[in-house]
């Protein structure tokens, strides 16, 4: 009887945890170029213009980074879904995440993984995305 009660409690906890994580994922919205620029300004001030710290702050605010697992490749791929290369982009981001992973220097990890991932075609997509704000003005 106690075993059954324990099993029910475990399953209940698991379902609650899944519901919470599903809700957290569904709340995330695709960032606009305007959102990126606004968060970038806040992060520059918070990090005193230091590039690696600014980048990590920005990607955290945008929901694209966690200190535990680095870049969220799926979310990044969703931003650039119009390029029809989501799987390839996710592979690049995941590769760079693993290659540069350094949990004792999080700012450097974020910066080096970003440089790695944006060294090719993805870098051009990022520039195009960021130039949307100038077009909106």
Automatic annotation (TrEMBL):
The keyword Acyltransferase does not apply. InterPro entries: PBP/GOBP, PBP_GOBP_sf. Keywords: Signal. GO terms for molecular function: odorant binding. It comes from Drosophila melanogaster. This is Odorant-binding protein 99d. It comes from the Eukaryota. Residues 1-24 form the signal peptide.
